[in-house]
Write a structure and sequence with these properties.
The chain has about 325 residues and is mainly α. The chain has a single domain, classed as Rhodopsin 7-helix transmembrane proteins (Rhopdopsin 7-helix transmembrane proteins). The chain contains ten helices and three strands. A three-stranded mixed β-sheet has the order 2-1-3, with no helix packed on it. The chain is globular.
């Protein structure tokens, strides 16, 4: 390829080149994606149609469901297409932008939700006075910060010259594997990219740790019933945070976890551990707002066990 020729499309290798595994992966990930969409939409509809859930906690929870839908939709459909067809090309600019936008938005939202739990538990008398307008403003700010972050990451990546090769050893476009293909020294570009990502991730992580540390210390002064309710709420949120922060890696199989599995587990955790949401879903079902709630829970339980078993078996096979 001539040195003055620049790439506009990239080829990704995908998860595997074995057609049997491709079919199995396609079936498993298709089921997971459908359940992710259905579960998160179910939570959003429940919160919107239930007036008693018009609180900051559930407002943020509905936004988390929306982000999970968007986050998984950035990578999963293209991955499923790659599992079915031999032609695995992609224009990286759009995927890079939206991937970082939704990932940053989710990190910031999880941090805001941790602070919301801190106010609810450590300052319960002030919590009912929290203005929903402030919550809307916080969500607006997180989308603004996410957009700026994503623009920086995308601009710094696409401004590099790409003369070839154009093969990405992954199933989606992310900054590290893409800049490796640049036909120039990427040290100066890599520093602001890592600094930008690291500043946001580290700041949010420290804020999350501080919030939960203060919450745990404050629980000592509460009654046994108060501690139980607070721990139940915080545990569900902490599990979601752990799923999102824990598996970051450039490894393809580990990347599957936070692009495919985590968006599925979030509504699964929130639905089954939150009595108010389960009660609201049953009430809406009685009003015939939606009918398949029990089917969804049962299907989630069975399918989740099958999918997790399949993933663990596949990982052991690859290892």
């Amino acid at each position: 390829m001539a040195p003055d020729t620049y790439l506009t499309q990239f080829v990704f290798l995908g998860l595997t080149d074995n057609w049997v595994q491709e079919i199995l992966f396609f079936m498993a990930f298709s089921a997971m994606y459908v359940l992710t969409l259905w579960g998160n939409i179910l939570i959003m509809v429940t919160i919107v149609f239930t007036p008693c859930l018009s609180t900051p906690m559930y407002f943020f929870l509905s936004n988390l469901s929306f982000i999970d839908i968007c986050h998984s939709s950035v990578t999963v459909p293209k991955m499923l297409e790659g599992l079915l067809f031999d032609r695995k090309t992609i224009s990286c600019i759009a995927q890079l932008f939206f991937l970082h936008l939704f990932a940053c938005a989710e990190i910031l939202l999880l941090t805001i939700m941790a602070y919301d739990r801190y106010v609810a538990i450590c300052a319960p008398l002030h919590y009912p006075n929290v203005n929903m307008r402030v919550c809307v403003q916080l969500v607006f700010v997180l989308w603004l910060v996410g957009t700026v972050h994503s623009l920086v990451q995308t601009f710094l990546t696409i401004r590099l010259p790409y003369c070839g090769p154009n093969v990405i050893d992954s199933y989606f476009c992310n900054v590290p594997p893409v800049i490796k293909l640049a036909c120039t020294d990427t040290c100066l570009t890599g520093i602001p990219i890592v600094s930008n990502r690291g500043t946001i991730s580290l700041s949010c992580f420290l804020a999350l740790v501080a919030s939960y540390t203060i919450i745990l210390f404050s629980l000592r002064k509460q009654s046994a019933e108060g501690r139980r309710k607070a721990l139940s709420t915080c545990l569900a949120h902490f599990m979601v945070v752990s799923l999102f922060f824990g598996p970051f890696s450039t490894d393809k199989l580990v990347s599957v976890f936070y692009t495919v599995v985590t968006p599925l587990l979030n509504p699964f955790i929130d639905t089954l551990r939150n009595e108010e949401i389960k009660s609201a879903m049953k009430h809406l079902r009685q009003r015939r707002v939606f009918k398949p709630y029990p089917i969804y829970i049962e299907l989630n339980l069975v399918t989740l066990k099958v999918i997790l078993s399949f993933i663990s078996t596949s990982i052991l096979y690859f290892l």
